[in-house]
Design brief:
The chain is α+β, with helices and mostly antiparallel strands. Helix content is 53%, strand content 16%. The chain is built from twelve helices and ten strands. The structure holds flavin-adenine dinucleotide. Flavin-adenine dinucleotide is lined by residues 119-123, 128-129, 153-155, 195, 201, 351, 354-355, 358, 360-361, 364.
Length: 373
Amino acid sequence: MEDLLTLPFFTDAQRSFARELDVNARQHDWPDPDAGDDAQALLDALKALGKVGVLKHAASEPWSMRTNVLAREVLAYHAGIADLAWAMQALGAVPLLIAGDDEQKRILPDAIAGKLCLGFAITEPDAGSDLSKLNLRAERVGDDYILRGEKHLVSNVGVADYFVLFARTSDERRGVSAFLLDTTLPGLSFEQQRPISPHPLGRIVCDNVKLPASALIGNEGDGMGIALGTLGRMRTTVAAAANGFARRALDECLKHAKRRQMFGKTLAEMPIAQGILAEMRARLDASRLLTYRAAYEFDGGKQRIPLQAGVAKWQSTENAQWIIDKALQLAGGVGALHGSIFERLYREIRPLRIYEGASEVQQLVIASEMLKE
Ligand SMILES: Cc1cc2nc3c(=O)[nH]c(=O)nc-3n(C[C@H](O)[C@H](O)[C@H](O)COP(=O)(O)OP(=O)(O)OC[C@H]3O[C@@H](n4cnc5c(N)ncnc54)[C@H](O)[C@@H]3O)c2cc1C
């Protein structure tokens, strides 16, 4: 990662942080969620991140986008499960940083230590990209809220101690509120769903769950702002994760191409393979530069960077998918075997083009920002 790390986007402290995390992550024996117990793998990865101290950047202010972008690029390069553990702690913590009260923020030190696991629950069967369709209800009854309804496709189901959960508190379009949900409350049940790259994911069913009013984050009706503020911050880091997966694919592909003999030469000496390798590098550099630009502008005080974050997320995730596909192609049949690094990356990258705003949603955001200018 050195080539672009030395550019003026970063401070010396950020560069040292990335280098140290890279050494730590390279040496760590990360759990394999494909081995069968994805819940345990996630918790082990979380504990390891807590020990290294990297979660404080995800779950405390000031939130340095450049530091967090470097963290995700490095973690994704070494282990998808480590990147996921980082991302879910951030997704659970950022709503509290934006609007939580002191009592709610008391869980953050344990989250930073990796002792407590967080999650973010917004998607419902009838409300994904279109969040105006959210339908899980939170009805105020005396000092409590009663939750009824269902979430699905939620990461960390079965392992999270708390979710930030978004529920409808009025019929107005933006009548959505955010709650800190203790997952031990009666009336909650969880059902696993299995994603393409294994990690704990599933449904949350709320059957008259009684939540104290103190679980409300911010005020009633603040939920959409909190959700969009959180996703807006996370989007640039999703781009960074995609770049980490893609950079790993390119490194592994170069190693393979230099070793593999065919037609009296190495694969790396074949002109068509060289053309593909060159395009992989160009796409990766472009993605990383777009991501670093978004992070630099966020940290420079802009904070709201929908265009830069949208361009970074869209291009980085799409380019990463292309780069990983080409890497697998050049690896040949062994690349397509279950358990090869190329096959693993091929599965890891796929959901990033869908979650936290699908590529098509980013295109809409970019166009609408340009048209406003
Ligand atoms: C591995 C994984 C982990 C996830 N983790 C979480 C989590 O922790 N918490 C959580 O709440 N959710 C999570 N999700 C859910 C994710 O956020 C949703 O899948 C995503 O928002 C898309 O919603 P949807 O699946 O309902 O697709 P839909 O909204 O039905 O969209 C389907 C497709 O339509 C296209 N599309 C969407 N909008 C437009 C448009 N305006 N114009 C043209 N085409 C469009 C896109 O190609 C999109 O992929 C996760 C999903 C996956 C796959």
